[in-house]
Specification:
138 residues
Length: 138
């Protein structure tokens, strides 16, 4: 009586090929998952920074408007809930405006500042540049 062993299971080569395919699929999926996780963390950092942008801009605006009017360059830095920021500014335009109110002339001076703001949170970094106006009444 002859027993046919060829049909009783998988050969060693078939098993090795299936293991190689399985390992390849798992490694590709893990690379994709890691990329998605890093992107998610980075997006979260940018969202946190965006949430702190408006209060930081208000603080910079107040600093520029409360500064002595003779200053033409300013800088500052600070932290807002672990969001670190540094800013620099310089005057790009300055002029006097003559106004007439109640029959008398008044002279108002204004300065147009260009402000560069750099914000960092964890590994995320973002730079903004914007204009701000300050003025002086006489």
């Amino acid at each position: 009586m002859l027993i046919n062993y060829r049909h009783k299971g998988f050969s060693l080569i078939e098993l090795l090929v299936s293991v190689v395919i399985l390992v390849s699929v798992i490694s590709v999926i893990s690379v994709i998952y890691r990329g998605a996780l890093l992107s998610s963390d980075k997006a979260t950092d940018y969202v946190v920074m965006s949430g702190h942008t408006i209060p930081i801009l208000k603080e910079i605006r107040a600093d520029l408007r409360n500064m002595q009017f003779s200053i033409d360059n300013a800088e500052g830095s600070g932290s807002s809930n672990r969001v670190e920021y540094n800013w620099t500014s310089e005057v790009v335009e300055q002029d006097k405006v003559v106004g007439i109110a109640g029959g008398s002339e008044s002279y108002n001076e204004y300065k147009l500042w260009v402000v560069t703001l750099e914000m960092t949170f964890n590994s995320a970094k973002r730079e903004y540049q914007f204009f701000e106006v300050s003025w002086k009444y006489e």
